[in-house]
Amino acid sequence: MAVTRTTDSGLAASVGLTDADLVAMYHKIALARAVDERMWILNRAGRIPFVISGQGHEGAQVGIAWPLERRKDWIAPFYRSIATCLAFGMTAQDILMAQYAKASDPSSGGRQMPGHYGNVENNLVSLSSPVATQMLHAVGIALAAKIRKTGQVAMTSMGEGSSNQGDVHEGLNFAAIHRLPFILVIENNGYAISVPAAMELATLDVADRASGYGIPGVVVDGSDVLACYRASKEAVDRARRGDGPTLIEAKVIRLTAHSSDDQQTKYRPEQELAELPSHDALPRFRDQLREAGVLSEALEATIAAEIKAEVDAATDHAEAEPDPDPSTAMRWVFAEEWPSETPPPWGLGSHGMAGHEGDTSAASGAVD
Ligand SMILES: Cc1ncc(C[n+]2csc(CCOP(=O)(O)OP(=O)(O)O)c2C)c(N)n1
Ligand SMILES: [Mg+2]
User: What is the mean pLDDT of the chain?
Assistant: First the structure.
């Protein structure tokens, strides 16, 4: 997948990236789409029980996740965050293992709901099913980062419908008062299941609310990957400098039904559905890279072949892996005595439980 030019394109330079970065971003967006499409096929074939899709959100997710530092910063994702998780270190195989709920599924060993990805290694917080609860998890992580002076940034993402939950107000108010290194991403796809945005919000833009918390609110076109990248880079830099949170609202599209159990033709007009592909970030970014001379036909074909091979191998692997043993159904569901065979995410280290319950030293500093 090497880029052969010796100097980077003007497009890459315009956002302070390299051509290799742009190709890597395109690869993640296209991979997320391919994994998602495979999930629908597997669902319709009766192999996996449920799909909740990220199609139409991928460009925004990759653009926004890109400026964060992997394995240092944290993301608390939501059920459409397949591209976010892929951009932050998960693999197609990790995603499909969760869909199949196999014993070796890295998200939860097959315990979580479908679409509830999480990855300890890559600082991706496991989802909760009630929408917007991830807000408080991410704000808490940002608070810890500030107290511990780690230089980390915490981001969370959710839909515009979820942004109306009380947790969001509480979290943003707290994060803003304490200038936490925190970013709230609203992926506004115009619907909360079948409810259109006009019935969820009295304003056009969720980002308008940011001024009520004294923080910047940015609206960005979610079909413009590099605009999303720029908005996120600014927010990450600001958070890292200690200047506090940002609310980014990406206007995206939901290319599929809400889930594999929903029929969107019941509530979305035919014309709206027909026009969706013209707002899709994937072909738009591909055209942009072609025009800039970053993506040649040969490179595009290589990427497509790599992605197909990766998704095929991931499917074969997930199909072949064993299901969890039913006798272990309660494991990792209720609290167990540590240490168990699975170390807690914070690690046992040399101090055993002390880093978890007994150690108050990290929390003793005031939030300035
Ligand atoms: C607290 C809570 N209320 C209701 C639900 C049911 N529910 C699941 S997804 C969803 C719609 C959320 O819409 P939005 O936040 O816009 O995200 P989108 O699905 O459009 O990406 C609802 C109401 C839930 N999971 N949690
Ligand atoms: Mg929505």
Answer: 91
**Which bound ligand lies closest to the C-alpha atom of 56?**
1
CB 125 within 8 A of CB 74: yes
Instruction: Note the Cα 85 to chain centre separation in Å.
Output: 5
Q: Say which ligand is closest to the CA of 78.
A: 1
- Which residues sit opposite 157 in a β-bridge? 185
* Confidence label for 355 from pLDDT (cuts 50, 70 and 90): very low
- The protein residue with its alpha carbon nearest to ligand 1, atom 18, reads 159
What's the distance, CA 144 to chain centroid?
Answer: 21
Residue 252 CA, ligand 2 centroid: distance in Å: 9
What is the atom index within ligand 1 of the atom nearest the CA of 78?
A: 21
Identify which of 243, 247, 33 has the alpha carbon closest to the alpha carbon of residue 157: 247
CATH no., domain 10-334: 3.40.50.970
**Residue 39 near residue 99 (C-beta atoms within 8 A):** yes
- Would you state the structure tokens that stand for residue 42, as one six-digit string? 């597997």
Residues within 6 Å of ligand 1 by CB: 80, 129-131, 158-162, 189, 191-193, 258
Q: Does residue 74 register a pLDDT over 60?
A: yes
Contacts of 73 (CB under 8 A, 6+ apart): 123, 152, 153, 154, 155, 236
State the DSSP code for 352: G
Q: Which residues, at least 6 apart from 219, have a Cβ–Cβ distance to it below 8 Å?
A: 205, 207, 249, 251
Q: Where in the chain is the domain with CATH 3.40.50.970?
A: 10-334
CA-based radius of gyration for the chain: 21
The per-residue pLDDT for range 189-245, each reduced to its tens digit, is 999 999 999 999 999 999 999 999 999 999 999 999 999 999 999 999 999 999 999
Query: Residue 338 has what pLDDT?
Result: 54
Q: Which residues contact 291 (CB under 8 A, 6 or more apart)?
A: none
